[in-house]
Amino acid sequence: MSNCSIMSIFEDGYCGVKHPHLARLQLHGVSFTDVHEALSFLDPSRLSFLDLSNSSLCDFQFLLNMTALEHLDVSFSRMEDDSVDLIGRVGANLKFLNLSNTRLRSAGMESLAGFIPIIETLILSHTAVDDFALPYIGMMPSLKVLDLSNTNVKGFCHMLGNDQEEILSLIALQNLTHLERLDLKETQVRDGALQPLSCLEDLKFLSLKSDFLTDVSLLFLSSFPKLKYLGIRGAVLTSAGIQSFNPPPMLKILDLRDCWLLTEDALLSFCENHPQIEMRHEQFDTGSTAQIASGNASSAHGTSRTVQLKPKWAKMSSPPSRFQKEIFVDERRKYSREELLELQFSPLSQVSAR
């Protein structure tokens, strides 16, 4: 059931059974006249899958008897820190928990620490959690998927009583030895904060998107032995940085979208040096990097190779002209990182992009 108003489920029993044995209940976007009354005819101890995403609920006391829950989705609901404690009380069997777009803060995560011991997927995107939640997350050793995108995580925090001394907060995740997927998009993570992640040897998917990241971050991202997808979107990466990047040995996809400083030549050079990696960037059409890397039959005979670039970047073929080809000088090299970021969003930049 979804996007409806519910008064009761199995009212007065079902087929003569007072408490029908229901294992899966999907109630996306529903509203309840009285949630306790509506669920009163179910056997809560048999329910293993519960989806309450996009619901208008603010009272979650009914969770207390759902001790068999393995999958719980309360995303886009009005769940707050006080209600998270109810999840901890029934979290012994919980493997999937989606708290995205709720009113959760770091204080609420303390209620879960040690109470969801076999949790494998934890989604906290678009919440107010910050670096102080990371030690509690680090107490969930079975985690395989962790989504912290669009949160207040910075990768650094201050010692209590000492606002001057910063410590690396992501070090709290080093015990998550089974972690395979980590999403840190749209956070304020900086270059140096990534260093503790190198201990996550099972990591296969790492997604970053921040204009606080520079070429320095590439040094820390070369050491993941099993990494297959690496996204460093919106970073201040330079052509020199990407050309000197030594990608992880198992890498299949490198997503550099929104890295606007990278030049076409630098991207082409990387693709030629690493033909096994699919490049994602605004300058390339889908699948073009495979063609760039492999070339075509004509290239073996000394003829030029065709590259599929998006129209705004394409080099259009034309007959010989009496004018010499203009030499292009990359003026971006003259500016500092801060000046480049200001230029990116300046009115002049918007005009030149048209």
From TrEMBL:
Under the heading Pfam families, the entry gives:
LRR_6
Bias regions of kind Polar residues — which residues? Answer: 292-307
In this chain, the stretch annotated as Disordered covers 292-319
- Which InterPro entries does the record match to this protein? Leu-rich_rpt, LRR_dom_sf, Zyg-11_UBL_adapter
Q: What is this protein called?
A: Uncharacterized protein
Q: Which taxonomic lineage does the organism of this UniProt entry have?
A: Eukaryota, Viridiplantae, Streptophyta, Embryophyta, Tracheophyta
